[in-house]
TrEMBL record:
This is Potassium channel family protein. The keyword Transmembrane applies. It comes from Peteryoungia ipomoeae. GO terms for cellular component: voltage-gated potassium channel complex. One of its GO terms (biological process) is action potential. It is found in: Membrane. The lineage of its organism: Bacteria, Pseudomonadati, Pseudomonadota, Alphaproteobacteria, Hyphomicrobiales. SUPFAM superfamilies: Voltage-gated potassium channels. InterPro entries: K_chnl_dom, K_chnl_volt-dep_EAG/ELK/ERG, VG_K_chnl. The chain crosses the membrane at residues 27-48, 60-77, 97-122, 143-166, 203-224. GO terms for molecular function: voltage-gated potassium channel activity.
Length: 262
């Protein structure tokens, strides 16, 4: 195959992948839904990691998921029209790091807790917002997003605490203790029956409390705050407006927000 023939084929493949990843037709929706189901299954494997790590099948599943993430990274890069834009996506670097922990589990196992960040990949897929809309939960998008952020943070900290403080304990008991400590710290309940030793442990507790409280406040704000749509004002660029707004609150410019808020 000569170079002139390969260029149109490459362009066609990129267009096809872009349509599947970002399109709204039936084939694209089915493709995105399949990816989301696979993401959820992978996240389940990550969360069950402490209980599965001593089983012979663990490494097989580990490398299978690594191959899948590598394949999807290549596909996402192909679907993106700009390599720079692809590399600037936070999830790109999260996936690259997760891939490293999967390929080299013996050396990077202490950083395996970062794998749970792939939950964000589910929330960032176009199919996620489309499903919320079809389920009648479009007005709760901010609430769901805030809840996901809090959920991811809880399990990130749990994984961090487990990896650095409870790793030598029984897998089940150590993980539950780490989760218990994280929830008690984030909620500032502070029972004190499980604490982290040393200066590093105290610093971990301080950071967990500060960020955890911030995410709780963000979730509370999302619950009580009136629903707003994303619609940039043509005059001043204000992004968020009430769903029934006629004028921009910042500059008074007349708005023409579509009924579906898109």
């Amino acid at each position: 195959m000569d170079e002139e023939t390969s260029k149109p084929l490459t362009r066609t493949l990129r267009q096809h992948l872009a349509r599947l990843y970002f399109g709204r037709d039936t084939a694209a929706i089915r493709f995105q839904f399949t990816l989301m189901v696979i993401d959820i299954a992978i996240i389940g494997f990550f969360l069950a990691g402490p209980y599965l790590r001593d089983r012979p099948s663990y490494l097989i599943l580990d490398y299978t998921i690594a191959a899948w993430i590598a394949l999807e990274l290549v596909a996402q890069w192909s679907a993106s029209w700009s390599t720079r834009r692809f590399l600037m996506r936070p999830m790109t670097w999260v996936d690259i790091f997760v891939l490293g922990t999967l390929l080299f589990p013996q050396w990077l196992f202490n950083f395996a807790f970062l794998r749970v960040a792939r939950i964000w990949a589910v929330a960032q897929r176009p199919i996620f917002k489309l499903m919320l809309k079809r389920m009648g939960l479009k007005e709760q998008t901010d609430v769901v997003t805030a809840f996901i952020n809090l959920f991811v943070f809880l399990f990130l900290v749990t994984g961090f605490v487990y990896s650095f403080f409870f790793y030598r304990e029984d897998a089940g008991t150590g993980f539950i203790d780490a989760l218990y400590f994280t929830v008690a710290t984030v909620t500032t309940t502070g029972f004190g029956d499980i604490t982290l030793p040393g200066t590093f442990g105290k610093l971990t507790s301080i950071v967990t409390m500060i960020i955890g409280i911030s995410l709780f406040v963000r979730l509370a704000q999302a619950i009580v705050r009136p629903y707003k749509v994303t619609f940039p004002c043509p005059e001043c660029g204000l992004q968020r407006h009430d769903a029934d707004a006629v004028h921009c609150k910042a500059c008074g410019h007349i708005l023409n927000i579509p009924d579906d808020g898109e």
